[in-house]
């Protein structure tokens, strides 16, 4: 189903204009973090390499409390985020401490297979702590459908929020990618824990940003897993460059930092023979490709000449980036953002889930927060997946008025899994 800009929800645009919060007010973040994150993403794109790393040395999962509240059982748990072990420099202490809540039926429904279906729910933008997901989705799923839920708190949210961050407004672009890397690894830890506890079939879901994070996590699980991404799509680049949130980004700050010495990378190095190719990209206004290459090849500034072709490429790219400071326009910064965002969030850069027929997405046909113009369709990337469209509603309206549809989609994906593999 195609979208046009005119068809997008006016309500989404007006709603966003009434909010004062800004994202990425401190800029791109540390360039070396982008480099480290790209190397980590490369591991994630190698079939189940991330799973193998975690299986070799899994973090200990601790259940800290258990109680019964009305018709549901509530478990509280915690563990150390694997990313905090691999890259402690990226995470302040509260960000690296994963906390979660498990919502279970008091009694599991009696069925011939004695199944205990469980779905990990990842949080959308602004969804701090657990109460929203617990009240709107997890408790009804447990009581009405006999489905358990694990509510994982997002890095940079709730008890994991850095002291200098205001509400949900991530300070740096890089923080979004750190969040994604954390959630992928933490979801794998929880899926492994679910298997050990005898839960199944297993699924992943989330609304908006949570839906996209759930999709990324599903690509790294080496077994069939149900997936119900709601109000998300195949990349986050469209959200921040075309969608309603684009107006909440201080583009002048990002452009200024892109021009700064921090992003030079190799001022003191001599020009290498292939540098002309990188400069030509600037002449061609190919900031999109530059954004992707910068994430892949950035190396911090040094006075030592590179000794390998790989290092040559990294430093030459950083040197050609100097030209952006002289020529960048708002349009080029948008393209640069698109390139970096696609590099880290586009589903085409990650493995296809083991069984895409267990994927049922929900999309709003007038979604102005997650526009789909010019973005690959989910079913093109993952043949066999389904998309259910909410007609004549934008992002906010769909979120408010379609909770029953979201729950039904979660139940349907788990049922597909049970019928096929249990």
From TrEMBL:
InterPro entries: AB_hydrolase_fold, ABHD18. It holds the Pfam family ABHD18. This is Protein ABHD18.
């Amino acid at each position: 189903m195609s979208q046009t800009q005119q068809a997008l929800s006016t309500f989404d645009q007006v709603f966003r204009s009434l909010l004062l919060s800004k994202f990425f007010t401190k800029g791109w973040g540390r360039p070396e973090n982008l480099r480290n994150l790209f190397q980590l993403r490369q591991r994630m794109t190698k079939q189940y390499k991330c799973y193998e790393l975690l299986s070799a040395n899994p973090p200990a999962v601790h259940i800290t409390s258990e109680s019964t509240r009305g018709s549901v059982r509530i478990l509280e748990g915690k563990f150390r985020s694997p990313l905090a072990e691999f890259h402690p420099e990226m995470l302040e202490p509260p960000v690296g401490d994963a906390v979660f809540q498990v919502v279970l039926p008091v009694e599991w429904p009696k069925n011939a297979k004695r199944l205990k279906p469980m779905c990990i729910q990842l949080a959308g933008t602004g969804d701090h702590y657990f109460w929203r997901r617990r009240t709107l989705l997890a408790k009804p799923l447990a009581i009405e459908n006999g489905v358990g839920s694990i509510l994982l708190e997002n890095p940079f949210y709730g008890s994991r929020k850095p002291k200098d961050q205001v509400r949900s407004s991530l300070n740096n672009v890089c923080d979004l990618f750190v969040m994604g890397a954390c959630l992928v690894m933490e979801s794998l830890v929880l899926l492994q824990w679910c298997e050990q506890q005898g839960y199944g079939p297993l699924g992943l879901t989330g609304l908006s940003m949570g839906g996209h994070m759930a999709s990324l996590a599903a690509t790294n699980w080496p077994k069939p897993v149900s997936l119900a991404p709601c109000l998300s799509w195949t990349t986050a680049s469209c959200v921040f460059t075309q969608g309603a949130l684009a107006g909440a980004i201080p583009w002048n700050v990002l452009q200024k930092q892109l021009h700064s010495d921090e992003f030079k990378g190799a001022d003191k190095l001599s020009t290498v023979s292939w540098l002309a190719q990188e400069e030509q990209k600037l002449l061609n206004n190919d900031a999109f490709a530059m954004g992707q290459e910068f994430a892949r090849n950035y190396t911090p500034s040094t006075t030592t000449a590179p000794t390998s072709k790989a290092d040559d490429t990294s430093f030459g790219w950083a040197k050609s980036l100097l030209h952006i400071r002289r020529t960048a326009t708002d349009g080029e910064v948008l393209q640069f953002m698109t390139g970096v965002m696609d590099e880290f969030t586009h589903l085409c850069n990650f493995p296809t889930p083991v069984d895409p027929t267990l994927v049922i997405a929900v999309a709003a046909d007038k979604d102005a927060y997650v526009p789909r113009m010019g973005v690959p369709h989910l079913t093109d990337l993952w043949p066999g997946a389904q998309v259910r469209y909410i007609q004549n509603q934008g992002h906010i309206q769909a979120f408010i008025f379609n909770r029953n549809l979201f729950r039904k989609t979660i139940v349907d994906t788990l049922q597909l899994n049970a019928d096929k593999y249990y």
